[in-house]
Amino acid sequence: MMKNGDLEKNGGTKRRGSYNNYYKETSESEWRSWLVPLIVVANVAMFIVIMAINNCKHNNHLQNGSGQCVAKFLGRFSFQPLRENPLFGPSSSTLEKLGALQWQKVVHEHQGWRLFTCIWLHAGVIHLLANMLSLLFIGIRLEQQFGFVRVGVVYLLSGIGGSILSSLFIQHNISVGASGALFGLLGAMLSELITNWSIYTNKVAAVITLIVIIAINLAVGILPHADNFAHIGGFLSGFLLGFILLVRPQFGWREQCHLPASARLTSKYTIYQYIFWVVSMVLLVAGFTMGLVMLFRGENANKHCSWCHYLSCVPTSKWSCSN
What we know:
- By secondary structure, the chain is mostly helical.
- It has a domain at 31-52 and 110-311: Rhomboid-like (Rhomboid-like fold, Up-down Bundle).
- The chain has 11 helices and 2 strands; from the N terminus they run ββααααααααααα.
- Strands 1-2 form a two-stranded antiparallel sheet.
């Protein structure tokens, strides 16, 4: 169930000393991070393709669009008028055509692939920069510690989990972005810290810091035009996946070969790590199954939770959440 080896270990190097101030381990395997930078490059390349297809200078003229394209000197890569897209990006119709998440198309036109493709699209330069800088900051650390296979699985499944929850609650707008996958990495960091509690020092400080970062990012999600359901769905998926995929042997296991047999640990993992693994696996499978069944049956989750819409947008005197 929890294997000793890592699928990616052949690409790693051994190092002595602690990886950061939170570890108690005396030696730690570290892998070279290449998947996270590759994901960043793929997202940037995809955005360039999106802007080329959008071709604001040409299409805005044909459609008699109101407002002028931004940064016209970029030619076909110029941005939509700021009244239409304040994030310096393409039109919503271009995003929809290229795979944005849209409930109607997923459910009634059987385009379930949009649950995956929307993760690779971004609404604008600001959106892209915010997500990719966050991914580099969070993802490289995790990939160095756990390798590309596990981090890649967490990233993709969290992104899809965020897409499922978003589709269940937001049914009249499109949604794009890697935010759900990023929140999945944050969730995995938190559960990894919890399940591997014995190998850390400064545990309380680490937990508080991480919770504050997550809370601030979720709070930003209640602003208009932010899809907080994707954030929440991604976070919950990543949190459960962290208990399943990011488990470490308990402190002292790796060094016990140097100890006499009478002093060696009897179990590689603690009992609570096994409990977390089983419970998380059950909840993850049940959550994805129930979410997909509800989605493809055309269910509107707002009917089952009358207050949940406040998790994604809180109306104030400055803005409305009606759309």
